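go over whats below:
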Amino acid sequence: MKYIVWNNKGGVGKTFITFMLASQYAINNPEQDVIVADLCPQANVSEILLGGNGKGEENLQKCYDNQRTIASYIKARYDRSRFGNLGDEVSYFVKVSDYNQEMPPNIYLLPGDMDLDICSTIINYLAQAPEKGAWIKSRRFLVDLISPFIAGGKNRKKVYFFDCNPSFANYTEMAVIAADRIIVPCTADAASIRGIHNLFRMIYGVRIGQEFPDDSIFDTFCSKIKESGLSSPKVHLFIQNKSRVLDKSATKAFDAHIQEIRDIATELKKDYPEFFTNNNELVVNVKDGNTLASIINHTGLPLSKVQQKRYTVYDKVTQANQSQIKPLLEDINLCVNLL
């Protein structure tokens, strides 16, 4: 199964959720392989997986130097085989535990790359080639890249997580085309709700209570997908990230936005069931990580390995408490069990 973690809104915790779900899924399912593809130029999930701030940055640089990143692959396709596999796709993945021993041995990474935005010009250039089907071929690079992946043996089940930045860039389109399911992180604010609306417009061509006449005039991602005969991934889960630890501390506005997200998700599934999976638990809350997020980002530790003790983060002492760890881990395990 292939999951894209995306919302057309920044700051909703896409990268943190991707890391938490992928690492905990790998820990809970040692008999399966977990593959994270980093489709974000900032490469934050790569840095966390490879050891966190400092160490992870150094290890990510090694991936750059060895040309084992998503951008390296796109450049190689442009140079060597624009519309066909290279034959060495598996070499672009790294085994995370080789770099970060705190991570389970069954998780692999296609590292992100700051050159991904530069590669977007390559993707657009190839999409305009006179060859028939050039657009869809240019957007299937990620499909081509992950298809031959056989780490751990052909008989082992594989689960993929694609981390993307908020924009609907062509490399985000690659992730959408490669995915089977969408996980939508969101926060209790109006901008996050607008992001959900935009997601449905761009991927499915629909939005509650509104028509978009321009969509019938101009080519859109949705129209291109339909012309290519492809199916879009289905929405599987809305994760209300950074929810308050104590419900009584939430403001009225915060509560109102949480309820509005639930209402939107419910209404969309009722009106457009074909865009959703059969997951009964459509919207889940994930507690605010508070200081845990900074500890995890800095150390590259999976949440289940974070202990109740003091950690030094950028020369500052930060305390991790079970009152934070336990509820967050429970929420993450709930999400993992719904995958």
